[in-house]
Specification:
Number of helices of chain A: 18
Structural class of chain B: alpha/beta
CATH topology of the largest domain in chain B: Rossmann fold
Oligomer: heterodimer
Number of domains of chain B: 2
Radius of gyration of chain B: 19 Å
Radius of gyration of chain A: 23 Å
Number of strands of chain A: 23
Order of helices and strands of chain B: EHEEEEHEHEHHEHEHEHEEEEH
CATH architecture of the largest domain in chain B: 3-Layer(aba) Sandwich
Largest sheet of chain A: 8 strands, mixed
CATH architecture of the largest domain in chain A: Alpha-Beta Barrel
Largest interface: A-B, 37 and 32 residues
Strand content of chain B: 25-35%
């Protein structure tokens, strides 16, 4: 039995009994204990590893809401506003002008001359004064093949002339609010809303479903991005898992050098509530240390900036009609009841406060029929929940995963355009969640925003928006609270806090290896702390060589 | 692409209204090669005895029909079905219980070779008012009603006559121009729902068991007529029609195909030769033959 004792500049354990240590002892991929070298030496022979002697160790970060598509999106060219690192660690500079976007798409087209469709992603014209990217712009990048560029929100798509031609849209007389027209009466190349993007993408041969579902190579890229972000356990929320794709995920994650514990959720679609729960309970038994299965994701409504989130009165500030249900209330009730009965964990996407209300009410009814004391049903995003809703959630034993990154990237939009100042200030109410006793974590929803728990923690602590305003002073949380959210907090919502989330005897040897101390740097610098890499299940992964 | 566009009927309505039952009725009795597309994560959408073979992507159904799921990629799935060989006669797209059917029709606008034929919304006569009173669902149900060309008021056997009159009045007050068709077990003649009338057919009689409920006449204009004006009159006039379909001669030569579903109408140029005549189908109780006759001569009712 080999014991390795890692020496560190500081170890932040997230354990109240022993918050800090200098050494941590690891055996069989698990933690023997954290303390001083003298204390740990009692476990017998050991090898002292000083690789981290000048580093700060934290429990490996846990990303409670991201998608493995964060890895596969990099098959296309990144054209977003903010700098963003790819799976290989190369930082792609954020693009500030349409010309820069065109140039990068031109490079992408030239780099892959055999690809039938040239794909870009991450475009966000709201930061460029809402300038409209046109098909002529993209024609300058590539004119002889279709060019498809997805916006960061994923709710809008741009095409070049060739793409529109193939999509059958390059004609006058197209009369739909989702297809803006130019002076010449022809579509300018921007396509909004799924019922337009769907057919257009299908006809140019761009598979949006596949782009979001991920691929084996994408899963490995995702894991590399996790190492760079200090993440040792990450959800894939969610997949249309089948026996085959589960076996494939088990195979990929089972590789000796796979650096992550993946937690794939089964999306609700495609099965009756009964079958969904039975299938999910069934695959749970296949779980390994690096692929933890057996959870369900339900999507209750749409998105706030897409005006498809379900809102309570007074709804959207621009008077847009209420959003859409993606699950029928009766189906939600059936899923909850079956899942509670089978002990299967359900996370429910609710963006608008009406969707949150429905989830709370439905769970309350389900719990009367199927009493379950420690269900950990979690609301994902839950961006607009009111204090009253948080209190009810607490009493019902619900958890929440708030979208702190969203507040930074789109907070200004919400303030000005979707819900207005008051509700924008209380969006993603971390303070209220903690004060009302709702177990809480925070997330990136990568690839919607970049994976990076330290950034996410920074966003919840500072509540800064992209324009530099503090939005919602009263909902700020402290640095220690944010660090707990991205470790134990997330682990709790996954029902894995017995395994991960803190550096304590018996837990998995999962560490985030940091170059600086998040408790010592200024809160504003939290996001800038370099991540050296991770230790996952006792295996060391350096970001520089991953 | 010389072939006429493949018609797509969207079948919407909340859970439990009877969408699946209605689809199975059509599979049993229409005699058409139907492609059924479902999104609802419900139990098997096709009656067992109709299924010939099942694989992951496709259920083969007797009579040359098929059923597939469309999941997240409606457009891709539609194109796939449109490309099937042999091609189906008609696509039935069963939407989820909370979907807004009109947005599905929008998708069709951008797919060549497919034509939105209309939206059929199925409502449970006993439950629709309760469902619409649920605060979470009220606006969704209203949006479904707004999009309905034909509203099948199903399960009328579960309500009394007085209740039926009440709920019919309620539906009428919550819709505009929608044709309301009562039904039991989703039994509505396929030519009413799908306009699948072989044209023209002298002395057309509405198919199916429910024919006692319906009436049909063939409008046979004497000579060329403005097809748009006629289509509009059939759709928007208060004639009690649910469906109308047929060819008429245009002034200046050529034929036009007129299709009416509820208050929705389309007119397109016919590419080849057809006998003229427009089959008009409506509920017996409200069918206004005299009004119809003012638009042109009607063929005599067969003995």
């Amino acid at each position: 039995m080999t014991t390795t004792i890692y020496q560190a500049r500081k170890i932040i354990t997230m354990s109240h009994a022993r918050p800090y240590a200098t050494h941590v002892a690891v055996r069989e991929g698990k933690i023997l204990g954290a303390g001083t070298l003298e204390e740990l030496a009692r476990w017998g022979d050991y090898r002292l590893d000083t690789t981290f002697a000048d580093k700060v160790l934290m429990p490996g970060f846990v990303e409670g809401h991201a998608h493995s598509a964060e890895g596969s999106v990099w098959d296309g060219a990144y054209v977003g506003w903010f700098d963003r690192a790819d799976p290989a660690g190369k930082v792609w500079e954020g693009l500030k002008t349409v010309d820069a976007v065109v140039a990068r798409m031109r490079d992408a087209a030239a780099a892959k001359p055999d690809e039938p469709v040239v794909v870009g992603w991450g475009l966000d014209p709201i930061y460029m004064d809402n300038v409209r990217v046109t098909r002529e712009d993209l024609d300058r990048a590539c004119a002889d093949r279709p060019v498809v560029v997805l916006h960061a929100s994923l709710h809008i798509m741009n095409m070049n002339t060739k793409g529109l031609e193939l999509a059958g849209l390059l004609k006058s007389g197209v009369n739909h609010p989702g297809v803006p027209l130019g002076q010449d009466g022809l579509p300018i190349g921007e396509l909004r809303s799924p019922e337009i993007m769907g057919p257009a993408a299908a006809k140019v041969g761009f598979d949006r479903g596949k782009a979001m579902e991920g691929s084996p190579e994408g899963l490995r890229s995702y894991a590399r991005l996790c190492v760079r972000a200090g993440v040792t356990t990450a959800t894939d929320l969610a997949r249309s898992l089948t026996d085959e794709s589960v076996d494939e995920a088990l195979k990929i994650t089972g590789a000796p050098d796979f650096p992550l514990c993946l937690v794939p959720f089964r999306i609700m679609a495609g099965m009756t509530p009964e079958d969904l729960v039975a299938f999910t309970a069934g695959i749970r038994k296949k779980s390994t240390d690096r692929c933890d299965l057996g959870r369900i994701k339900v999507v209750a409504d749409g998105s706030i900036q897409g005006f498809t989130a379900r809102m309570l009165w007074p709804g959207y500030i621009n008077g847009a009609p209420n959003g859409l249900w993606y699950v029928a209330p009766d189906q939600l009730a059936q899923i909850y009841e079956h899942a509670l009965g089978a002990g299967v964990l359900v996370h429910t996407h609710t963006n608008g406060n009406e969707a949150t209300e429905l989830a709370i009410e439905t769970l309350e009814s389900a719990l009367k029929k199927v009493p379950a004391r420690d269900h950990r049903f979690t609301l994902q995003h839950c961006q607009l929940a009111s204090p009253a809703q948080f209190k009810r959630m607490a009493r019902l034993g619900m958890c929440v995963n708030l979208f702190a990154n969203h507040h930074f990237y789109w907070g200004d939009e919400h303030y000005a355009l979707t819900v207005g100042p008051e509700r924008a200030e209380r969006m993603n109410a971390c303070r209220t969640a903690l004060d009302t006793g709702v177990p809480m974590t925070i997330h990136s929803d990568a690839p919607v925003t970049p994976l990076g728990p330290l950034f996410t923690a920074w966003a919840a602590v500072t509540r800064l928006t992209a324009s530099g305003r503090v939005q919602g002073e009263g909902e700020k949380i402290t640095v220690p609270e944010a660090l707990e959210a991205i470790t134990l907090g997330a682990a709790f919502t996954l029902g894995m806090d017995d395994l991960i989330g803190s550096i304590e005897t018996g837990k998995r040897a999962d560490f985030a290896v940091l170059e600086d101390d998040p408790l010592e740097v200024a809160p504003e610098a939290l996001k800038d702390i370099p991540v050296w890499g991770t230790v996952q299940g006792g295996r060391v992964f350096a970001a520089a060589t991953i | 692409m010389a072939r006429p566009a493949l018609p797509v009927t969207v079948i919407g309505g909340y859970l439990g209204a009877g969408k699946t039952t209605l689809v199975n009725q059509l599979l049993r009795h229409s005699g058409l090669r139907l492609a059924v597309m479902v999104n609802e994560f419900g139990a098997l959408p096709i009656d067992r005895d109709l299924i010939e073979a099942e694989d992951d992507a496709l259920i083969s159904i007797s009579g040359g029909c098929v059923c597939c799921e469309f999941g997240d990629d409606l457009a891709g799935a539609l194109l796939q079905v449109a490309g099937m060989d042999p091609r189906p006669d008609h696509i039935l797209l069963e939407s989820s219980g909370v979907a807004i059917p009109g947005s599905i029709l929008t998708t069709l606008l951008f797919l060549d070779g497919l034509r939105g034929d209309g939206v059929v919304v199925v409502a449970d006569a006993a439950e629709i008012r309760n469902t619409a009173a649920n605060t979470y669902l009220a606006d969704t149900i209203q949006r479904q009603l707004d999009d309905a060309d034909i509203l099948v008021l199903n399960k009328t056997d579960l309500v009394s006559e007085a209740e039926l009159a009440e709920v019919t009045g309620w539906v009428r007050s919550h819709t505009k121009g929608t044709r309301i068709v009562p039904a039991v077990h989703g039994a509505v003649p396929h030519d009413v729902l799908l306009g699948s009338v072989p044209l023209p057919r002298r002395g057309h009689k509405v198919s199916g068991h429910a024919e006692a409920l319906f009436r049909s006449r063939v409008l046979q204009p004497d000579g060329p007529v403005d097809p748009v004006a006629l289509a509009r009159a059939l759709a928007e006039g208060d004639l009690g029609l649910v469906r109308a379909k047929g060819y008429v001669a245009r002034p200046g030569g050529g034929l036009s195909l007129i299709q009416v579903v509820g208050a929705r109408w389309t007119v397109e140029d016919a590419t080849d030769d057809h006998q003229t005549g427009v089959v008009c189908i409506g509920l017996k109780a409200t069918f206004d033959a005299d009004g119809l006759a003012r638009l042109g001569p009607l063929e005599p009712v067969p003995a």
